[in-house]
Amino acid sequence: MTTSREFSGVSRRCLAVVVAVALLLLSGCVTSEGGALGELKRATEHAQYAVATVEDSFGQFRRDRTLSTVADTTAQDMLSELEKAQKQVFELKVDTAAEDRQRTAVLKEIAGAARAITGAEDWIDDKSSHSADEVERTLRDSRDRLASRMDSLEPPQ
C-alpha cells in the first residue's frame, strides 16, 4: 500500500519535471535566433519535452508511483504546450519552399505528439482500448520522431 507521504515525494518530482519543462519552454521563446529553421527547431524541441514529460508521468502512474490526477493534469498541461508550439509553427513566416516543407513536417509531428498524449490521457482516465505498453510505445515513438525531426532542422555545416 502506498502512503500519502510517498505520493507527496512523487508529486514533488512530477512538479519539478513540469517546472523544468516550463522553464525550458519559456527560455526558447525569448530568442528568434536561427530564422525560420531555428523557430521550427525550438517548437519541435518543446513538443519533444512535452511528450517526454507525459511519458515519465505515465510511467510513474502505471507503476502506482503517482496519482491519476497528477498524471492527467500533466497530460493536459503538455497538450496546452503542444497547442502553443503548433500555433507558433503555423504562424511562422517562411521564405522558401524548403522551409514550408519543414514547417508542414513539424506540424505533422506535433499533431502526432498530441495524439500520443491524448492516448495516454485516455488510458489514465480508463477510456482507452489500448494496453499500457502500447501507450508507452506510442509516446516513445512520438518522442523519437520529434528528435529525428529536430536533427533534420540542423543547419548544414
Q: How are the elements arranged and paired?
A:
Blueprint: H1 4-29, H2 35-62, H3 68-91, H4 97-124, H5 132-152
Please tell me about this protein's structure:
With 157 residues, this protein is mainly α. It has one domain (4-152): A middle domain of Talin 1 (Up-down Bundle). Helices cover 81% and strands 0% of the residues. It contains five helices and no strands. Helix 1 packs parallel to helix 3. The model is unreliable at 1-7 and 27-31 (pLDDT under 50).
Top CATH class = Mainly Alpha
| Portion in beta strands | under 5%
Low-confidence region ranges: 1-7, 27-31
Global outline? elongated
Rounded to the nearest angstrom, the distance between the terminal CA atoms is: 55 Å
Counting helices, strands and paired strands, the structural category is: mainly alpha
Domain count: the total is 1
Q: What is the CATH topology descriptor?
A: A middle domain of Talin 1
- CATH-level-2 architecture: Up-down Bundle
User: What is the mean predicted local confidence, pLDDT?
Assistant: 86
Please outline the major beta sheet: none
Number of helices: 5
Q: Find the count of extended strands (DSSP E, 2+ residues).
A: 0
